[in-house]
Amino acid sequence: MTPAGLTQRFVAAFLDSVVIGSVQFVLTVLIFLALAGGAGMVRAALVLSLLVGLVGGAMYYALMESSSRRGTLGKIAVGIEVTDMDGFKLDFSEALWRHLGRLVSIMTLGLGFLMAGWSEQGLALHDRMSATRVVLKEEVFEEEE
Fold first, then answer.
1. Which end of the chain is least crowded, N or C, by CB within 10 Å?
2. Is residue 108 over pLDDT 80?
């Protein structure tokens, strides 16, 4: 399995942030229109918007990466997929764990992501934590039925 390059992963992440950011913006506007009737409601709308964004982002990554497409819209667009270490599709809990690991990569000020660039296997911190990898699409094994 050929690891995805750091540039491919970066472009995929950028595209995913555009998708998630656009949906989050629309949902935030709708939440504010529905709830922001007074000063106390603005705070509630902010908190609700944040929670919707966190849960929505986690569901986007976990559902897309555990689907038959094996990747988010950004990954699909650049031709890369997420697999387990043996090249097979993730289940939902593995994909959710991978996303939670991505939060740790963020907390390292991005160094967790950059690890993929200097790792011989192309593994970022969250890949190591979740025993997953991002590979070029054409080299992913098909699961036997």
1. C
2. yes
> 105 or 139, which is more confident?
105
The reported pTM is 0.87
DSSP the chain: -PBPPHHHHHHHHHHHHHHHHHHHHHHHHHHHHHH-SSHHHHHHHHHHHHHHHHHHHHHHHHHHHTSTT-S-HHHHHHTEEEEETTSPPP-HHHHHHHHHHHHHHHHTTTHHHHHHHH-TT---HHHHHHTEEEEEGGGPPPPP-
Q: Is the pLDDT at 51 greater than 50, yes or no?
A: yes
